Amino acid sequence: MPYTQGLLDLRTLQRFQIDELFHxxxxxxxxxxxxxxxxxxxxxxxxxxxxxxxxxxxEPSTRTRFSFELACQRSSVSPLxxxxxxxxxxxxxxxxxxxxxxxxxxxxxxxxxxxGSEFDLSGLSQMTGIPVINAGWGKEGHPTQALLDAFCWxxxxxxxxxxxxxxxxxxxxxxxxxxxxxxxxxxxQVLDYEIAWCGPTEFLPPEDxxxxxxxxxxxxxxxxxxxxxxxxxxxERHQSKxxxxxxxxxxxxxxxxxxxxxGHAFIFHPGPINYGIEMDSELHGDPRYLVLQQVSxxxxxxxxxxxxxxxxxxxx
Length: 316
Ligand code: CP
Known about the structure:
The structure is a single chain. 37% of the residues lie in helices and 15% in strands. The chain is an alpha/beta fold. Helix 1 crosses helix 9 (291-315), helix 2 (63-74) runs parallel beside helix 9 and helix 5 (143-158) crosses helix 6. The mean pLDDT is 92. Bound molecules: phosphoric acid mono(formamide)ester. The site of phosphoric acid mono(formamide)ester has 10 residues, from helix 2.
């Protein structure tokens, strides 16, 4: 059954399962916008059993952590937060593995985990018997980010009678280190949109691993695509290898470079953004700029996913 072990990647989902997820996320959005305020506890859907979700973030996060926390609260799931080294037994040398297994031993209903590649999330659900949602795992993937991007994009497309199927997404920047890019590569296969990469050679995946189209010139990529997504330049990984000034000149999204982008296209960034490097802050006023809409859609998408994982037998 889909989602019973949580969600680690997007390879095993079928299109109808993603459609169902987006449909549920749309219901969450409509409910929220119609109410225009947070539900009181009495208004939340009554659940026969108390549920809790352990949000275990071994790496920093703003959007993912807060949106999962809010999604839990809106779905009557109690969030338990573990989000920094300080004040935990990691400071005393306890390992990440032992930390997770101890939290799992307390019996939360769901584990939502952000960790580096050194931690293996793949066997965790089977080992603990608790569903696990990947909230950003090393370079392996960030499936809920790709899903929320596609949910947001699909909604804007459908408002003008178009579908994501057959559309073209240009991903610009630090693709080699990006878990978001890895998840879009998987999701594009299922939802049938085309991806192309754009960036300096040292930011692209090794040549033998590239299956997608590559644009070396930003302008050509922007003329080709229906949506462009800039990625954060992970400066910490590139210190001695590239010039920020060259990157800005050749690959920054700003008013000048985006004159090559269609007026009907959209501009995305998963965040956090290095303004002045991969993107200029002047873009906030561009009607094609959907970065904050991505963030809002993240709450509804994650709420839908949590409910699929925890309540699918009760509510669907
Ligand atoms: N997009 C994203 O994962 O942002 P955070 O690191 O702030 O969660």
